[in-house]
Amino acid sequence: MSAPENMRKIVIEPVTRVEGHGKVTILLDDEKQVQQARLHIVEFRGFERFIQGRPYWEIPVLVQRLCGICPVSHHLAAAKAMDIVAGVDELTPTAEKMRRLMHYGQMFQSHALHFFHLCSPDLLFGFDADVAIRNVVGVARKFPELAVQGVMMRKYGQEIIKATAGKKIHGTGAIPGGINKNLSIEERDEFLKDIEQMLEWSRASVKVAKDYTVENLETVADFGSFDSNHLSLVREDGAMDLYHGNLRAIDAQGNKIFDQVDYQNYLDYVAEEVKPWSYMKFPFIKSIGPEDGWYRVGPLPRVNLCDFIDTPEAEKERQEFMAVTEGKPNNITMAYHWTRMIELLHSAEKIKELLNDPDLQGEDLIVKGERRPEGVGLIEAPRGTLFHHYKVDENDQVTMCNLIVSTTNNNTPMNLAVEGVARKYLSGATEITEGLLNRVEVAIRAYDPCLSCATHAMGQMPLVIELIDSDGRLLDKKAKGMSLND
Amino acid sequence: MTNTKVLLIGYGNPGRLDDGLGPALAQAIEARGIPGVTVDIDYQLLVEDAAAVAEYDVVIFVDASVKGKEPFSFRSVEASEDITFTTHSMRPESVVALAEDMFGQKAQAYTLAIRGYDFNDFGEELSERAAANLESAISFLEGVIQNNLYGDAASAIG
Question: What is the mean pLDDT of residues B121-142?
Fold first, then answer.
């Protein structure tokens, strides 16, 4: 191995003026072999301080400031934690089903956005395609029907969020102990008009992802893949449940590490390691330890570790997916896309099921209980398991908040994916081409990480790439998506 | 007044201090209830905004600016492809390009970038200087909308 002074560093960094961005550093030696690759995601930890001292009932609304992409996930995870704080263990059927509808609307729109407008350019045009066409506008020009479908699916999910949360952003629907509105007959009928179309497009989306994966299995199987543990919530009967359940973790072969764990006790099972080079922590399963106890979350683990999916079309697709690995967990990183589309279809089926449930028009919205000092809320967000944990004092003010967001749960896997791809495609390269760099990005995108959702003022540069030699000199610098205004 | 259909999209995170300038302006314009003006507020621009943009004659994207002109700039937007790491947010140029490509509609589009100063913390209030810039921008935009002077204003203000 070369001495560090003989190495040079490639930096892929979105330059923002606030925390919450990602940066990739790839260290090359004199022979241009990749020695080390790391993904740094700079998390903004000040949020916990921001909400300390706030009354607990404000928290489900306030936490939506964390993320503009999945505010509903934070809204619902916080509401579930505050149900516990409010002394409520079971919601009314109307409240639970309204929240579920909100959540499946969120899952539907988020998965559609990711697939059609984030990863489809890579899949449809190839990793080496000209960056001038390998983007969402390129997709709109060459595959206009697909692009329009993505937009309309996203819009449908957004409208469901608006109807259930009360507003498109900063919704107030979920409150400690319940929900503050039901779904009117008029709202229900509007959504029912389009649900068959959404189901049809969802089926087609699964096919696109499945066909791509199967046709390119040799390539994708080796692309940033590795064996890992998997973690998610499952229902008591082992079914996939994206809104509520108990924790299950399995190893790479499918052996259960733990099962049906009440997430109020998550601290007995999951811990976080701090590493000096990253602001973001590295969660791991305590019984295994930090070295080997890291795990993946999100669509791939959820499909891998559930016993079945309780909607018929998604279950059929799950069985087909699991057949590829003969029932064992699938550890292919790029298989996230296929499983994400299985969940898209599952969400559409669930939305249809809920829209036809008269409980959504019920009037019994809130349950009251006896105040408790602490509560934990977990939800399967689009990107994976999301943990919210709060302590509340006798004055109803929050005194402690601990969040483990989905992207943090996937910290170690994303680093491994980046390193695997960097070693395979960047070692020995004489030139850092767009295609090579994009392969690194593709590996990260598979996890759909949320890197810098919190602020988007004009003037930021989403991606800067710097090439620095062993003397620290800047050899090259590329910027993507620079703002025109400033 | 004219029959021009106007969409104003104010975006940013009101929980991140001056990043809330876009939503703050949008709320102020909405409160004025100007006929023909539809107001939308979001954290960031996303693909579905292209579908909305395609339904209007004039679209105004309002955002905070990190180091732009004080108190604000007002410029026309030309459609262009965006090359970014993520589509978790989009630029106005890309939204306009998508509206044209997917829905075949070409709206007159403008950005109103209001200069902000304080972005590096959580908080729901604007800095004093950003609040002053916001007031100037509200007065300016109200006049532009009332008099249908978008192109002239963009040329004059830049």
Answer: 93
Are B122 and A65 a contacting pair at CB < 8 A?
yes
- Which residue, among B5, B144, B20, has the nearest Cα to B74 in the 3D structure? B144
Question: Which chain B residues are Cβ-neighbours of A403 within 8 angstroms?
Answer: none
Asked if the C-beta of A168 comes within 8 angstroms of chain B's C-beta atoms, the answer is: yes
Q: What is the CATH number of the domain that holds A146?
A: 1.10.645.10
Asked whether the beta carbons of residue B12 and residue A140 sit closer than 8 angstroms, the reply is: no
Condensed to tens digits (0 to 9), the pLDDT of residues B135-153 reads 999 999 999 999 888 888 8
For chain B, domain boundaries: 6-157
CB pair distance less than 8 Å for B84 and A485: no
Task: List the beta bridge partners of residue A270.
Answer: A285
pLDDT of A360 strictly over 60: yes
Q: Are B12 and A455 a contacting pair at CB < 8 A? A: yes
Q: What is the percentage of chain A residues whose pLDDT exceeds 70?
A: 84
Does A435 reside within a domain?
yes
What is the amino acid identity at position A239? Answer: A
How many whole angstroms separate alpha carbon A159 and alpha carbon A31?
54
A170: left (phi over 0), alpha (psi -120 to 50) or beta: left
Is residue A472 situated within a structural domain? yes
Of A238-252, B40-54, B138-152, the poorest mean pLDDT is in B40-54
Overall average pLDDT of the A285-304 stretch: 97
The count of domains in chain A is: 2
pLDDT band at A459 (very low <50, low <70, confident <90, very high): very low
pLDDT of residue A294: 97
Q: What is the per-residue burial (b if ≥16 Cβ within 10 Å, else e) of B4-14?
A: eebbbbbbbbb
Average pLDDT on A172-177 reads 95
CB contact under 8 A, A136 and B82: yes
**What is the predicted pLDDT for the residue at B2?**
61
Short-list A403, A480, A334, A293, CA closest to A44? A403
Partner residue opposite B102 with nearest CB, options A140, A169, A445 = A140
Q: Which of A456, A463, A464, A480 to mutate to test the interface with B (most CBs of B within 10 A)?
A: A456
Q: Which of residues 259-278 of A touch B (CB under 8 A)?
A: none
Q: Does A152 touch chain B (CB under 8 A)?
A: yes
The answer as to whether A441 is a domain residue is yes
- Contact status of A142 with chain B (Cβ, < 8 Å): no
- In this complex, the residue of A154, A454, A486 whose CB is nearest that of residue B48 is A154
What are the residues whose beta carbons fall under 8 Å from the beta carbon of A38, sequence distance 6 or more?
Answer: A24, A25, A277, A278, A415, A418, A419
- pTM for this model (two decimals): 0.87
In 3D, which of A226, A272, A275 has the Cα closest to residue A417?
A226
Query: What is the assigned CATH class of domain B6-157?
Result: alpha beta
Mean pLDDT, rounded, of chain A: 85
Is the CB of A148 inside 8 Å of chain B's CB atoms? yes
Shared domain for A120 and A181, answered yes or no, is: yes
**Residues A405-424: pLDDT tens digits?**
888 899 899 889 888 888 88
Q: Which residues of B touch A453 (CB under 8 A)?
A: 43-44, 88-89
Where in the sequence is the domain holding A419, given as residue range(s)?
4-42+414-480
